[in-house]
Amino acid sequence: MAVGIEHLRDVVLFRDLDDGALDDLAGLSELRQLQRGDVLFTENDEPDELFVVVSGRLAMVNRSIDGRESVVALMEQGDLFGEMPLFDGEPRSTDGRALEISEVVAVPYEPVRSLYNARPALLWRAVELLATRLRVVDGVLADSVFLDVTGRTAKRLLEIAGEADEFSLPVTQEELAGMVGASRERVNKAIASFIKLGWIEQRDRRYHILKRHELELRSR
Fold it and tell me: Within its chain, how far is the Cα of 6 from the centroid?
């Protein structure tokens, strides 16, 4: 299946491109299929492309020297990732791993650089993207200071659920713990407390939110 302009049109970096430029960029890009657990890139890899999620879900993961993982970001349909080295020339700062069957568009850096060289005003979209990234980091730092493990667990479950009251956990318990920034045992204890309070129901990896307002209050 070829990459079409519909895969790129809503991506913030490419939002100001006309259909002709989008078509040229799509023609230089490729679709990649990933199975759960497939590693798209690893920390310190030398990069030459960015990615757009077509379907599925991927995790950006940092790994400690003793093998522990921290999930620094989840990427879902429409999300762009892997763009930072395009601007600073540095190696990858995380691992990129598929959490489920996924499809991504790989866009090479060089034609994007050529677009910016020809039309510097397009860089305002890059500034918008990077500012959004900084706001997310600010939020994560604030959570680590102001929220305990139970509060961070409530917040991550709400983020995964979105607007739905019923959802499947797309990550393992270890991966969820990495998103929360705590041990698996402490995250499981927080979830058990929500169940005991009657805020959620759990069956295997499926959850049903019964009292969203209480979860929202606990996540603030």
Answer: 20
Residue 183 belongs to a domain with what CATH number? Answer: 1.10.10.10
Residues 95-111 as b/e (b if ≥16 CB within 10 A, e otherwise) read bbbbbeebbbbbbebee
The token pair at 108 is: 């090479």
Provide the β-strand partners of residue 208.
166, 201
**Residue 86 sits in the same domain as residue 185:** no
With the C-alpha atoms ordered 28, 32, 37, 38, is the resulting torsion angle positive or negative? Answer: negative
Give the pLDDT of residue 145: 80
Domain end call among 91, 126, 161: 126
pLDDT tens, residue by residue, 28-71: 999 999 999 999 999 999 999 999 999 998 989 887 777 677 78
**Could you list the residue range(s) of the whole structural domain that residue 31 is in?**
5-126
Cα–Cα nearest to 70, from 138, 119, 140, 16: 140
* Final residue of a structural domain among 126, 153, 182: 126
